[in-house]
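call fold(seq) -> C-alpha cells
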Amino acid sequence: MAARRRGRRSKRRTRQQVQGWGGAAVAVAVLGVAGNWSAVWPVLVAMLALVVAGGAGWALWRTHRHAVGRDRQWRADEEARARELSMAEVDALSWQEFERYVADLCRRDGCTNVIVSGKSGDLGADVVGYLTDGRKVVIQCKKYAPHRSVSSQDMQMFVGTARLEHGADVALFVTTGRTFTKAALGLAVRQNIVALHRDLLGAWVKGARLETLIPLNGRGGGTSRRRSPA
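ret:
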C-alpha cells in the first residue's frame, strides 16, 4: 500500500512539474510576442489569411463537387427517361414486329444480308446477318414485358444452337425485359454470348452502334476470322 501511495504521489508531482513548465513556456512565448509585436503581427496576419483562404477554397471545392455530382446524376436520369420514352414505341410492337425492328437496327449500323426468320421453330435464329467486318451475327429476340427477366433456360436454349446450328461468330440475345437473371448472365459470359437487356437495347434504339454495344455485356467477341457473306 505504501509503495502504491508513493507511486501516486510521484505521478502527481511529475504532472504538476509538466504543467508548471508548460505554463512557463506559454508565459515566455507571450512575453516574446509582446516584446516583438511589430515583427510578429505581420506573420500572424499572413497565417490567418492563409487559414481563411484555405477554408474558403475547401468550401468552394466541396460546393463544386456537389454541383458536378448533381449534374452527373441529372444527366443520367435524363438519359434513362429518354431511353424509356423511345422504348415505349418498342413495347407497343408485336413479337414479329420486334424481330423486324431489330433487323432494321442491324441494317442501320451497316450489317449486310440481314434475314428475319419471323416464325417459330427457328432454333434461336430470329435475325441473321453479317457485321461490317464480315463476322456472322445470330440474334435471339425476346419480346418480354418491361419488368420480366430472361431466365437461364432461355439462355441455355440459345447457347445450344447459336454456334452449333447457325455458325454464329457473334451471338446476340436481345430482350425488352429489364434484365437477365444472375444464372442467365453468368452463362452468357461463360459462353461468349452478348446479352442486351432493356437499358442497352434502349441505347441501341437511341443511336448507339451495334459494334460499341457488343463488348458491354457478355464478351461477344466471336472469332477474329473474317467471313464472307453467303
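The longest helix spans residues 37-91.
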